Every structure is written in structure tokens, then in C-alpha cells.
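Checked the freezer inventory, then went back to the computational side. Two predictions to log before the end of the day. The first one is the construct we discussed on Monday; recording sequence and C-alpha cells without edits.
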Amino acid sequence: MEALELVAFYEEAEQAPSVRMRLLQTRDALARFGVRLTVRPDLSRQKWYYGLRRGAPLKTWFRWRRLARTAIREAAVSGAWILNHRLCRFSPFVAALYSEARRRRVPIVFDIDDAVYLRDKWASRGRRLAAALLEPNMSPFIFRRSTCVLAATNAIADRARLWNRRVRIIHTPVDTERFCPARNRVPPGNADKLVLGYAGNVFSHADDLRCILPVLDDLSRRLPSVTFRLAYTGNSAVLEEFRTRLTGRITLDFLEQIPYEDMPAFYNSLDFNLVPLLDEPFNHARCSTKLTEAMACGVPCVASPVGFHCEAVDPGVNGFLAEATPEWIECITQTVRHPDRWAAMGRAARRKVQTHYAIEAVCRKEAEFLLELAESRRRAGTQ
């Protein structure tokens, strides 16, 4: 079977977690399985309507259309496919990319790992109006016109299947060589000193984070020493709520903007990783990399039974699913008093990630799907 060339376009900066995890870190593994991925420069800081400010909207418009048409012409000559990573809002580039690809019969793979097809619930009313006018959501069109869809979660796949029958669930992979258990890990002993943690954006996850406030408050009365370690980006009033309610009762350790390279050390400093999520459409589509990264480090997780969590966590085996506050407290207190059980859950968590979410496992599945699809297109004479 011939190797497949993929040229990826995306709208975020290279440092964005989505780009790093689904594109940059998968290139070598995909190449070993017969898919050569080339990642083109990002489009994030070059919005088409920026030309309006300079009084040159038409010049900017046609420049982006030329860029898209050139990319499709090059792909048609080389026999490459286009990979569209999360580009689903209107722009001259996206519109031209799909129209030219259809004319030249160049396949486009739509890779999506978040609920970008839903309205941005965190934007102000003014920003929502501006987005609706300048960058309307084209997700139904993108789903329908793409050759196939790579969806990170079941919720995204269900949405994509409304318009496209070639949908495959490709989870966001975890680098299990980077995220691995520390050699000097010590199980929590008799709950004398308990370290709980959370990692994420506190602006977009403020309501989710508030779910564990009563949990920490209750644990501060039950256990002699509790530390809550928060690795966060963004800014939110929820941080002050935590300080006001918990200062003096538990130890708060807020760590802002931890580099990606230091995240394994953060997870390995925890006894439990907490992953609360409210039961809402946005959260059902999340791929929860903070859950799988901690599991890869052998850290038991307590998570809400929402979306991807229900697939990754086997309750009582490699972690816990908890909804009400008493459930969270019981999961933590009962496990922390049995170090052997805690250690066994950590080992089971890492095995689950190595089997299903490691880079090699995910890229093998993705490459097999794309190569089979390419071969079927060759047989049908569509390329």
C-alpha cells in the first residue's frame, strides 16, 4: 500500500495544546505507519477581516483565496490530501479551500477535537455578534464536504454523522514516554497528608471548578492535612472564591502557566487528580487530556461521569466517577486509607492509557483508517 501525504492547516498557534497533541507530536508515529504529515504555518494571527482596518478588504480577501487555491493545486499535483484541523468558521481561505478541492477532486480530512461547532458561551454579546457577522460557523458545510472526519470523542462523532458517514473516532494521544510515573512515588499513608490537584483553564472551566469547592471544604474537616494544587491558565473570580473559602483550612498551592515540560512533575506530586465537569454539551465533546495525562503518570483520578470520562475511567479499577459531593469524598477517603489499592489503581490507569491513548496506538488506528480509505478511492478511480 502506497504512503499517503497529508498537508495540515490549522488556525491556532503552534503552542496551542490541540495543535501540539494532534498534529506536531504525531508526525513521526504516522510516518512509521505510512502517512507523511506536513504541518503548514498557522492562520491564527492573520484573520481575513484585519484588512478592513487597513482599508484593503478586497486585497486581503483575494490574498487568502490565492493561498488556498495554491495549496490545492500543489496537493493535486503531488497526490496529497489536505487535513483541516478545526477550521470550521467562515473565511476566504476555508471557502476557497473546499471549493477548489471539490473542483480538483482533492480529498480533505476534517480533524476536530472540541465543540467548535457550538456557540462560544464565554464570549460577550458584542463578540458573538461580530463573530456571527464576520466568521459565521460553517460546521454543517465542513462536515458534509469533507472526505472523512476524525473526531476526538463520541459526542463529536455523533454530531459529524449527521452530515458525513465516514467518521472515525481518533482520540487525542498522550506521550506516555514523557508522562510516566516518578520513580520515587510514595502512596498516601493513612490520609495523614493528602495532595489533590486540578489542571486547566480557570476562565473556561470556572463553573466546573466550583463543583469541587464543597468537596475540599468537607475534606478539610475530615482529614488532618489537605493540600490542593492548582495548575492553571487564564483568570477568573473563582480563584478568589477558593482563597476566601479555604484559606486556613487547607493548603492552597496555585501554580500559574506551568510549562508543558513540567506537567509530568505536577501530576506526580498528586495523590489524586480531580476532573470535575458539568453535564452540558460543551463538556460532552471535550477530550480531557488532563485526565489521560494524569492516568499515564499512574495517578488515580476522580472525575465527573460526563462525556469521555465514562469511556476512559473504569470505576474502582483505574479511577472513580463521582457526581454528588458525598461520592467524591467517599472515593477519596476510602482509597487513601488503602495504599495497596491506590497503587494498583495507578498501574491500571497507566495500562489503560498505554493500550488506548498512547501516540503509537492512536496513530496506528488513524493511519489504518486513512490508508484504507485512500485505497478504496484508488480502486473506485476517484483519484
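The second is the one RB wanted added to the comparison set:
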Amino acid sequence: MLRINKVLCARFLAILLIALPTGLANAQPSQFRFPSPSGSFLAGQYAFKELSTSDAASALMDAAQSQWDNPAVIERAFAALVADGRVREAEPVARRMLELAPSNSLAKLVIATVALKERRYASVISSLEGVGLSDFVDISAAVVRAWARVGQTDIETGFKELDRSANGSLQNFLAFHKALMADLAGKPVAMDYARTAYENDPFMGRVVELYVRILANEGNAQEALDVLSEFEAQGLSHPSVDYVRQHILAGRLPGKFATSIPMAASELFQGIGVAIGRDGSPEVAMVFLQLGRYLHPKSDTLSLSIAQFLEASERFEAAN
């Protein structure tokens, strides 16, 4: 559904990471909880890269307490809090970041995500004013802003927000979100966008699930089953797709893909997070995935993705 642009990924990765001294390469995070601000900062950076997010957040917040005027430290501190799933705690630190660097896109995105969950749609839009399209933070901001427009029952402006962020590698990703928006708003055009997303990526589980749900909910159960059969004929499976199939075979409507704007918008962070993580940047992925889980805490898909990246980094206790 989303193909990673390595330049965009690199720009965001540069926000979060600095080069580590050679001596830290094989060390454990707990060895580097120095009492000095600089020591805490280095320890936090190392822990962040290793996905020891609790250690990272603690060490970087230690550093931030004595370097409250240092934007580099503040930025990494609130990013680590987000990666540790403490999004609400990260918000005031993100606000401090904007006092130091008013154009910081990641801080704006965190603040806007909190506002979106609380359905303060005007605040979402105002928080994201001036955000460009230079990296995945900016693209995420554009989609979050579009969801806020949907919350204001202005879906056409939401679509225009998405169109402004479109490029060749994002067209299908944005078609998926347009389908989600239209489906949640009860607009018939949802079918057209879902079909476009499906035709461009027929073997992506979440795309298939959305398309099949819309088909079945509109009375096209046999067509929905045909799509599912084609998906499974490729040797593919997905728990949510299996769930929808069971409902259709039982003669029941599968229901909407998402029933609220925060729940639907969490798909943005799921898609970007997984794509970035698979491209080799799990610490960046964790920031996006935890923003998604903040919006939709009951998402099994997000919880599974987070656990997989933690297990791959041998953070087995945190993954459970």
C-alpha cells in the first residue's frame, strides 16, 4: 500500500538520531545512565536506536530537565516519549519544542494527533498550519489535517488536502484514505476509491478488507467472496480478512472498516510505520505506530506490529 521513499525516510531519521561514539556500539543501555546531561543524552540516543524506549524516554527527559532551552534535546525527548507509548505525556514537551522551533513538524504532528483523538478538529487544522511536504512527518500531517476536515463534515476539503500531498508513490495510499473517509461519511464514492486502491494493490490485506467490506455492505456479497478467493489463491491470509469472510458466509453484513475518525486515522500511522520499519528504521517506525495506537488503543493490528519490531530488537518483555 505504501512504497517507501528513502529520501523522505532519511530526512525524518535525521531528526531522531545522531552518530554514536564507537565505544557505545556493543554496550547495554543501562550502562550509560550518566548523571551528566550529555551522558543522559547519549544513553537515551543509544537506547532509542535499540528500541529500549522506556530507557530512552527516561534518559532523554533527564537531559531535557537541565537543557530545557536546547531544541535538539527537547525534540528527541518528546519523540522518545511517543515511541514509548506515552503520547499524552509527550504533548507538553512538544509544545516546548514549538516555543524553541516554531516550524518543527514532528511537534506539530504530536499535538495535532492528541487534538484529533479529542475531536478538537479546529485545533488540529490550526496546529498543522505551515507544514510542508518534505518527509513522512509532513505527509502524515496532511492526512491528519484531512481527517480533521472530515470531522467538520467537509470531506471535499479533506480530499483537497490529500490531493495537495499526492505524488506518484503515494497515489494508492491516498486512494485508500479517501475510501476510508468516504465510507465513514456515508458517501457512495467510497466504492470508487476502494476499487482503485484494490486494483493497484490487490494483495495488501488492509486494502482487501476495506474493499470487501464496502462491497458486502452494499449487497455485493458474491463479488466480495470472489475478491477474497483471489486473495487467498495467492497463499495470503490476514486475520481481519478472515473475520470478514466468516461474516459474509454467515449472511451477515461485515460492518464498516472504522467507526470513528481516530480509529480510521490510525491506519495512516500503521501504514507508514510498518513500511518504514521494514525499510530498516524500526526506531522511526515506533514513533508512527505508537501515534496510531494512541488513536486506536484496541487495534490488534497496531499492537501486533509494535510487538514484532520489539521482538526483532530482542525486547521480548516489552513485546508481551
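For RB: The first helix runs from residue 6 to 16. Confidence is low (pLDDT under 50) at residues 10-35. Let me know if you want it refolded.
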